[in-house]
Design brief:
The structure is a single chain. The protein folds into 3 domains: 219 residues, HUPs (Rossmann fold); 104 residues, 2-Layer Sandwich (Uridine Diphospho-n-acetylenolpyruvylglucosamine Reductase, domain 3); 155 residues, Phenylalanyl-tRNA Synthetase, Chain B, domain 3 (3-Layer(bba) Sandwich), CATH 3.50.40. By secondary structure, the chain is an alpha+beta fold. The strands form 5 sheets. Strands 3-2-1-4-6-5 form a 6-stranded mixed β-sheet, with helices on both faces. The chain has a 5-stranded antiparallel β-sheet with strand order 7-8-11-10-9. It has a 4-stranded antiparallel β-sheet with strand order 12-16-19-20, with no helix packed on it. The N and C termini lie far apart (77 Å). The longest helix has 30 residues.
């Protein structure tokens, strides 16, 4: 048996001489076997080894005895052991989780805590082939998809681990069936504890193990666990291929912006449907710590959103949101990151403009500089998104720097035709969730300029102009990134043929 484990560990590159391993030991047969195997492997590899036992405080004196048994076993094997205790039932009730799920969470939190305390780099757990088969069946029953069928890998990330808790989870016994483990313990004369709750049908896994898997083994196929483990490895290889392909697609079609992770819908549509869904999953994984509550149904909802109307959005578990904004899907995390929930909560800048003068705009990090000068006929008018000239004598009232308001409008042609600012932004496909963050220059409700977009025709320089109002934008890096797709000299965004302007190219 040890040779079988050794080959498995070597094939998956689980252990090395510089590793420092924390073993999760419950006192049950599987974990006692794990401790025994790790001690044997330690002689070969030379890694450091400690044990952690977690008391769930569910079985009173019996649980206390499990802890005492584990500490004594570790003492005999000369392995340091740390015991953690958590009131799992109380925690599950407070957090609205099942006792089974809460128990799993506290176990890995204890392992991670010890990982941080010791500076160790690996956690070893005692999952074996029958556990793998149970996991695959349960994931299949609840529609877990490819990832569910890949189940538990020999080496994987640590569940519930935070970014600071670096390390890997290893499963050295995943090549063994339970009957092999019991034979090993019998041969070595090693005692172990039996958790009475494992013999009850109160937990889903117990039902699968006692009634489904046991029936298949006895009546249909004795080698079912070994066969399912081989299948899990194949599913894992396919999953890894999809992961890599989706990550490459994200580099091509995704961009990180101030409002969130943007995914190009044109790019998404070029991909095979299987890769499309994997790419959505990757985007969702980038906007939160855990994907545990994200199901295939959520991913299909995002796919449906991609085909829906612009401005629609989805609220997903763990504070995630996805919005369709014209040609993109925008993925965000917590609400505070999106600016979507209540624009009124943060009042935009509103300043009276004094000429000459300069004003810093906190929302974008840019500065606007206002100067006045005489106009010389035939002087070249700047063709730049950063410098604009206006006929100063046409301005009758004080100017303001402010956010948009109901009733704002632009003059869109030389005949005095106007358009509501709201309609203009819709026509040029400016993202709805950014509109309330725009800072514009206005005379009353008449907008002179939406910096980065266009000016009003009513204030343009003519041959009758005598005095110029020059406004310069000094743009910081943050502002450039935010409005890169909507600048008025890129040939995209709001540069458009406007029927109301008689076909003139509007800037």
């Amino acid at each position: 048996m040890l040779q079988k484990v050794l080959e498995f560990v070597s094939r998956h590159n689980m252990l090395g001489k510089d590793d420092k391993v924390i073993a999760g030991i419950s006192g049950g047969a599987d974990s006692v076997c794990l401790l025994c195997v790790l001690k044997d492997l330690q002689l070969r590899y030379g890694f450091s080894l400690e044990a952690v036992h977690v008391n769930h405080m569910l079985r009173g004196a019996e649980a206390e005895e499990d802890a005492r048994f584990t500490k004594e076993l570790c003492r005999q094997m000369q392995v340091p052991c740390t015991v953690y205790a958590y009131p799992v039932a109380d925690l599950a009730r407070k957090q609205g989780r099942s006792v089974e799920e809460m128990g799993r969470i506290v176990r890995y939190r204890a392992f991670c805590q010890r990982l941080l305390e010791t500076g160790f780099n690996k956690i070893a757990v005692a999952h074996q082939m029958d556990d793998q088969a149970e996991t695959m069946l349960w994931n299949l029953f609840r529609g877990g998809g490819l990832r569910g069928l890949a189940a538990m890998g020999p080496v994987s990330r640590i569940p519930f681990a935070k970014e600071a808790e670096q390390g890997r989870l290893i499963r050295p016994l995943l090549c063994l069936e339970r009957k092999e483990i019991e034979a090993c313990l019998k041969e070595r004369g090693l005692p172990f504890r039996t958790d009475a709750t494992n013999l009850e049908d109160g937990y889903t896994r117990n039902k699968i193990r006692r009634h489904v898997l046991s029936y298949v083994k006895e009546e249909i196929l004795p080698s079912v666990s070994a066969n399912m483990e081989r299948s899990a490895e194949q599913f894992a290889r396919i999953r890894d291929f999809l992961d890599k392909t989706a990550e490459n697609a994200l580099e091509l079609y995704g961009t990180v912006t101030e409002e969130g992770l943007r995914l190009s819908l044109d790019g998404l549509e070029k991909l095979d449907p299987a890769i499309q869904r994997e790419l959505v999953r990757v985007c969702l994984s980038r906007t939160g710590e855990s994907m545990r509550d994200i199901t295939m149904q959520h991913i299909e909802s995002v796919m449906a959103l991609a085909k829906g109307a612009t401005g629609k959005q989805l609220c997903l578990p763990k504070g995630r949101r996805v919005m369709k904004s014209y040609g993109d899907l925008i993925f965000t995390g917590e609400k505070k990151q999106t600016g979507l929930d209540d624009p009124k909560k943060s009042s935009p800048t509103e300043l009276d403009v004094l000429i000459p003068g300069s004003y810093l705009i906190p929302e974008s990090g840019e500065k606007l500089v206002f100067t006045k000068k005489s106009f010389v006929q035939r002087e070249k008018i700047p063709d730049s998104q950063y410098t604009k000239w206006f006929d100063y004598d046409k301005i009758r009232s004080p100017l303001k720097l402010r956010g948009r308001k109901p009733g704002d409008y632009l003059t869109v042609n030389g005949d005095g035709g106007t358009k509501k600012l709201k309609d203009y932004l819709i026509d040029c496909k400016y993202p709805r969730h950014l509109r309330d963050r725009l800072i514009l220059i206005a005379e009353g409700s008449h907008v002179l300029w939406v910096p980065g977009l266009r000016i009003s025709e009513a204030y343009k320089i003519t041959k009758e102009t005598r005095t110029i109002l020059e406004i310069k934008r000094i743009v910081g890096k943050e502002s450039k990134n935010e409005r890169a797709n909507f600048s008025d000299d890129t040939g995209s965004g709001c540069r458009r043929q406007d029927p109301a302007a008689g076909g003139k190219d509007q800037q």
